[in-house]
Every structure is written in C-alpha cells, then in structure tokens.
CAZy families GH10 protein (uncultured Rhodopirellula sp), 159 residues
Amino acid sequence: LNEAASGTWRLLMHKGSNDSQRTFVMWLIPDSTRIRYRISGVTNTSIGGDGNINLPVESWSHVACVKEGMNLRLYVNGALDTEVLLPEAGVGNTGPLRINKNGIHTPSQASFDDLEIFGVALEAEEIAGLAASSDDADTDGDGLSDYLEAILGTDPMLP
C-alpha cells in the first residue's frame, strides 16, 4: 500500500459494469487503511463487512477475501481479520474486473502482485500458506525491504 488515510474512499478492485454490480468490490475506508469488502445480493447491492486491521503504508500485505456459502471472510497476512454472515444470497455479474480504477470511485495508490482468483473457497490453512510464501525480501540485509527501497529510489543490492 502506497498511501495513508486520505479522507476519501479509494478503490482497490471492483468486478462489475456499474456501481450496483459489486460481486466483488474492495475499497480503503476514508479515515484509515482498513478494507471495506462487499458483494451484491439478490435485493441489496452492497452486503459485506469492514476489516479491523489497518494495512501498513509502504509495505506489502497479503489480502484474501473468501465467500463460502453465506459467509464472507477477509484475511490479512494469512490471519482472519473479519467475517460476516450474509443476510441473503450473492449474485454474480459478467462485468470486467478493474484494479485501482473503475471510472466511478477514487483510485487507490496500491500495487498488486500475485493477484489470483480461485473458483473455490480456500481454507484458512491454504490462505496462511499463500501469505507465508509472499516475498518481502531484503536482498542487501539493511532492514529495508526491496519494495521500500524501490519506492525510495535506493539500490536494494547495496547495504
């Protein structure tokens, strides 16, 4: 994540052709770096939850959203952040998947790596395994991740 709280909703990703198609959507909450995650229901176009964990700025985070039956879960760095019981069934859509920008919401200043969408609900252990395999490498061992050094314009190969 490359930005702190900004006072406005910032889009992470949205699948749908318009704002009433939200299967699925994730934003950063205006006063924080927590995630709001939603899907469209049969009668309500916005059902879901809000994360409790603030994503650290200028650092990689592993985020997973899982819908299994009537449960919608948000995981951050392999751990369950929040879970909601959906009040109604979700509905899909054939709209495009848009990352950071959809022409409706303010874009976030987030970078994405290893974005995957699965056709099945992953178990908590599988998500923890994916998060553990994420690479926050510090090639030169100076205490700054290679990612942060790239942002700062320093050389991740020189201590």
Summary: The chain has two helices and nine strands.
